[in-house]
Amino acid sequence: xxxxxxxxxxxxxxxxxxxxxxxxxxxxxxxxxxxxxxxxxxxxxxxxxxxxxxxxxxxxxxxxxxxxxxxxxxxxxxxxxxxxxxxxxxxxxxxxxxxxxxxxxxxxxxxxxxxxxxxxxxxxxxxxxxxxxxxxxxxxxxxxxxxxxxxxxxxxxxxxxxxxxxxxxxxxxxxxxxxxxxxxxxxxxxxxxxxxxxxxxxxxxxxxxxxxxxxxxxxxxxxxxxxxxxxxxxxxxxxxxxxxxxxxxxxxxxxxxxxxxxxxxxxxxxxxxxxxxxxxxxxxxxxxxx
Length: 290
Ligand SMILES: *[C@@H]1O[C@H](CO)[C@@H](O)[C@H](O)[C@H]1NC(C)=O
Ligand SMILES: *[C@@H]1O[C@H](CO)[C@@H](O)[C@H](O)[C@H]1NC(C)=O
Ligand SMILES: *[C@@H]1O[C@H](CO)[C@@H](O)[C@H](O)[C@H]1NC(C)=O
Ligand SMILES: *[C@@H]1O[C@H](CO)[C@@H](O)[C@H](O)[C@H]1NC(C)=O
Ligand SMILES: *[C@@H]1O[C@H](CO)[C@@H](O)[C@H](O)[C@H]1NC(C)=O
Fold this sequence. Notes:
Keywords: Signal. The protein is of the alpha+beta class. The chain has helices spanning 2-36, 42-49, 76-85, 163-171, 178-195, 206-214, 229-236, 243-250, 263-266, 270-274; strands spanning 59-68, 71-74, 97-111, 114-126, 132-147, 153-159.
């Protein structure tokens, strides 16, 4: 009798640990796959191919999230543009870096719908033949995830600490010298002149763009969300995906995105962003109930 109970208990425990393993591994795989697509040249294929190049099952069509200190993202297209469209491409300017490795240094998932991770995205020089050259630095991203019933990402709240220090190493120069700031403005204006054309024109030519941006606050990469140059530096990279959406963000008014926001509003608006009460999006609801 006792041994039968013991065997039944053991068997049930084994079965439930196999089920745990299933969603733990599923969630880990999803997160790893997302970061793997930021690695060059996988990111280049998505930057060229757009949404159709993103494998099914990674993001729910209604995925929303916040990435501190960059902004908030609403829906599948917004989310993939952030995750893959902003992953650096080699640009022929030393150190010519891109992500060459995505490692989940921390991962935990205590229930099927929630996980947390810390990813290190290794930035290395890309050699002319696309092989991996010297290590430059790594981008650290700490993220809470919520998954839908199929295991696709539905909500995320991510943080990139020290983006300012990362950016300096990515660019290979102090980004805040007068020369570097001038170069950044010139680059934004040249890029938008290629992608923000026709209906999506936001400046009356490159000199007009340079003049308007030179009069704005430059901003810092540790807080890109504002009516400043660094915000436009990020959003100009997205204009090749959906110029009708992103060109206004690069334009003189910031198009509702590169605008000065209140810290108290945008970094704490979980109810608005996740349509759920505080503590619900990223907390296992059924812990201890079974
Ligand atoms: C996305 O949201 C819309 C509107 O609420 C809903 O009709 C649709 O089923 C959702 N899609 C998924 C995959 O959950
Ligand atoms: C990525 O980096 C980790 C940690 O340095 C290392 O263990 C792993 O082998 C690397 N993976 C690849 C594909 O280079
Ligand atoms: C390097 O990768 C990019 C992006 O996939 C590709 O366009 C380019 O042709 C590759 N260069 C070499 C030398 O293989
Ligand atoms: C900014 O850079 C442009 C292009 O390199 C150059 O023509 C211009 O003189 C620079 N302006 C300043 C203020 O350094
Ligand atoms: C400009 O916008 C109009 C109306 O939205 C559209 O019909 C037209 O095709 C667009 N033209 C270009 C060049 O994108």
